[in-house]
Design goal:
Elements: E1 4-7, E2 20-26, H1 33-41, E3 48-54, H2 61-66, E4 73-77, H3 84-94, E5 99-102, E6 108-109, H4 113-123, E7 129-137, E8 143-147, H5 153-156, E9 172-174, H6 175-181, H7 192-200, E10 206-217, H8 223-243, H9 247-269, H10 285-298
Parallel strand pairs: 2-3, 2-5, 3-4, 7-10
Antiparallel strand pairs: 1-4, 5-9, 6-10, 7-8, 7-9
Amino acid sequence: MTPFVHARAADVDRQERPTVSVVLPVRNGAASIVPAMRSILAQSMGSLEVVVVDDGSTDETVARIVALDDPRVRVQAGGRRQGLAARLNEGLDAARGFLVARMDADDLAFPERFARQVAFLEQHPEVDLVGTRAIIHDETGHATGVFPGAPTHEVICATPWRGFRLCHPTWMGRREWFLRWRYREHGTSRCEDQELLLRSRLSSRFACLPDVLLAYRWDGLRPTKALPSRLSLLARQLETFAGERRWGLAAASVAAACGKVALDLASALGGRRIVHARFASTIDPGLEAAWRMLKRDTGAFEHAGTVHARPPEGAA
């Protein structure tokens, strides 16, 4: 099927090259996509484009995005499902910005997110990829905690056998870095962002801003869905550490995976979803007020949807 590409401008090539390209992959995200898009289009910095890559949605996702009628938005829809990693690479190839930001269809960006990340990358040319902290909320919009951030590359990469504390929808990085490393399209079920960090960590520099600049939906993960992700990431860890001849890290990754699976099984036996205790932190009044304002301004949670979020990779 010939891909459907929508852009309001007649000739995208004539538009000024934006500073930031937001790559947003989506599948059946009609329930949450409009507030997510509003939060992007209302950013305090204006030099941006949004590249929405639809992965064969069967609901009204594409129609709702097109109805926003904003010249900064491009929608690419191929009509059939190809998978998240393939769609991310498609978005990277289509991106025209100097920098690339990640978002998912049920995220909300605080208004200063992109401006602060752009300023950081301009001030730190040695950094390839920067994330932020994120407020965690459930499907009703209730804030339940804050995703912890590790401030430096060394701290982010301190325990690669356990994962990387860099919440993937908060990422912003240099386009050439993304194009150099790209996403692995096979064997990375639900762990493509963690695998990318793992594979690139020795030749890259990561950072994380201390500010909470994104709202990330996290309702907890069904244990039956966690296992394939655990096993997929473990396979990539063993492959990577074996290639580096770092057998101690390979053994540590096996031990860490076994511990996580044991906790998953305990949750399954108890009929519970996996919810990480460290997210259940107190939300300070200033952040709570900012969260209420963001929900109001984007129209989020006016009608509760049924979209189930992916877990923050590296959370367990």
